[in-house]
Design brief:
globular; mainly alpha
Length: 245
């Protein structure tokens, strides 16, 4: 049954027009980042990328991954896809199918956002986004982890709200609020889902001084608790609420 569920979800994912829209939307954060970069070919430019740019790109790609996961999951509930899968498989299977596919979409969104931003920065601004000293593997791993987590978060939000139009701002605000509060209330920002996730990555801190080891582990715990809490609430709603309507 697990193989059948995986096969069904993969076939649906490959034919999903929303996936194309999500991947195409990766142009938005990539373009915003490139537009804000200085031109390295000017005499006054240093060619060094502020680590805050990396943090901003990570945050924006995470928000986009969460929105994609939330809208796709909410649409699956609203159109009866989840209900049909529950009849064909088990009642729990459709929920975890949406979580898994949202994680894959989140990873793809993160990778494509990074690829487009780096390509645009090199071609248009003459800047390497990874030129601030961070290893390529570490930065891409951070983007992938954050994309997967954001996709799962979005799936949980979508399973709770179940209204494709309403879930879009809910998913976006649930993560982007940390970036809005990063300057005025950094302690509050660290306690929010995206702030805790960024802080747990160490070099990409929402605070000015970077995270120390104790603070990083605390942020990892906070981020995991947020994700488990969202999954728990959404799974309970999946089991207790009608799958249609």
């Amino acid at each position: 049954m697990r193989r059948r569920a995986v096969r069904i979800e993969l076939m649906r994912l490959l034919r999903d027009p929303a996936l194309v829209a999500c991947l195409g939307a990766a142009l938005l954060p990539a373009t915003a980042i490139v537009a804000g970069l200085p031109d390295a070919r000017t005499p006054a430019a240093s060619g060094i990328v502020d680590p805050a740019v990396t943090s901003s790109l990570l945050a924006q790609s995470a928000v986009l991954a969460a929105v994609c996961g939330a809208v796709r999951t909410a649409a699956a509930y609203r159109t009866g896809v989840v209900a049909r899968d529950a009849l064909a498989l088990r009642i729990d299977a459709p929920f975890w199918m949406r979580v898994a596919s949202s994680a894959l979409v989140g990873a793809a969104v993160a990778l494509i956002t990074w690829a487009l931003a780096r390509l645009g920065a090199r071609l248009i601004r003459g800047i390497d986004l990874l030129g601030h000293g961070g290893p390529d593997v570490g930065v891409l791993a951070a983007a992938l982890v954050l994309g997967v987590a954001a996709g799962i978060w979005g799936a949980a939000i979508g399973a709770i709200v179940r209204a494709p139009l309403a879930v879009l701002p809910v998913a976006a605000v649930s993560l982007s609020s940390a970036m809005l509060l990063s300057s005025s209330a950094p302690e509050v920002a660290r306690a929010l889902p995206l702030g805790a996730a960024l802080e747990s990555l160490g070099a990409f801190s929402v605070s000015a001084g970077g995270a120390e080891d104790a603070s990083r582990w605390w942020s990892v715990l906070v981020a995991i608790l947020w994700l488990i809490g969202a999954l728990g609430m959404s799974f309970a709603g999946h089991r207790m609420r009608p799958l249609l309507g």
